[in-house]
Amino acid sequence: MDMFDAERPALSWTPVYIDLRDAIVGHRIPPGMKLPEDELASIYGVSRTIVRAALQALGHDRLVNLEPNRGAFVAQPGKREAREVFEARALVEPHVAALACDNGNPDEIARLRDHLEREHEAIHAGRDSDAIMLSARFHMGIAEMADHSILTDVVKDLIHRSSLIIALYWRRRDTTCERHAHLALVNAIERRSKNDASELMKSHIIDLLSGLDLSQTGDPGGKTLSAILKG
Question: Contact, 145 vs 104, CB < 8 A?
Fold first, then answer.
């Protein structure tokens, strides 16, 4: 499953998963905060088994770290990791965008344009989790257009890791990927302008990094988990 998978099947733990996911992405639960199973079971009025399944799904999405004998904690990537992930993207994705100019076809371009509309709707509706997920899939779509299996795998891994970083540390709502930046990329790929696509991708990724606030900590401001989730 992709991060923040909108098509995740509706199971008994899904409502708990969605509420916790949105609280983390919406910055109501800060990075590093502990998520005790028993407390969450009491808050949501469900069994610990259901809570455990929701936490495991969040762990799959890399939003939560599951530590043996310690429990679950909201993930807290460090500043160095964040910078290294985006530096790697800035090296790899411009080349991938140039390859997409050579290999993309009209149907793929049309799908990217349709995707932009969904991104725009999610951002303006304040659906932050969906916006981050859609932004990630946009970049993955360009990587798939490049038709280079090794680079595509590299890009997908980097995007999953940077999506988590964006979810936890964004300070500007447009950090999810500005509509104009994505539109310019699609236009450059459609024109088969390799230089433009490469430069646009590089500047876009640098802008993403500049929009993050890596100084955030796990301090919930004195609020308990119950107060955060019920507030």
Answer: yes
Query: For the domain bounded by 79-210, which CATH number is listed?
Result: 1.20.120.530
Q: What is the DSSP letter of 30?
A: P
DSSP states of 155-174: HHHHHHHHHHHHHHHB-SGG
Q: What is the pLDDT of residues 146-169, one digit of tens each?
A: 999 999 999 988 987 887 788 778
pLDDT tens-digit map of 1-17: 444 454 455 679 999 99
Task: Give residues with Cβ within 8 angstroms of 106, minimum separation 6.
Answer: none
For the cut 70, the answer to whether the pLDDT of residue 80 exceeds it is: yes
Q: Which two tokens stand for residue 38?
A: 């028993």
The structural domains of the chain, with segments of one domain joined by +, span 1-76, 79-210
* Residue 15, amino acid: P
Q: Which CATH architecture has domain 1-76?
A: Orthogonal Bundle (1.10)
Quick check: pTM over 0.70?
Answer: yes
Sign of CA dihedral 39, 40, 41, 47: negative
Q: Scan for tokens 């800060």, then name that residue.
A: 30
Mean pLDDT in the chain?
Answer: 86
What is the rounded distance in angstroms from the CA atom of residue 184 to the CA atom of residue 73?
38
Please report, to the nearest 10 degrees, the dihedral formed by the alpha carbons of residues 100, 8, 89, 32 taken in order.
170
Topology match between the domains 1-76 and 79-210: no
Please indicate whether residue 168 or residue 85 has the higher confidence score (pLDDT).
Answer: 85
Q: Both tokens of residue 19? A: 């509420």
Among 59, 49, 98, CA closest to 201: 98
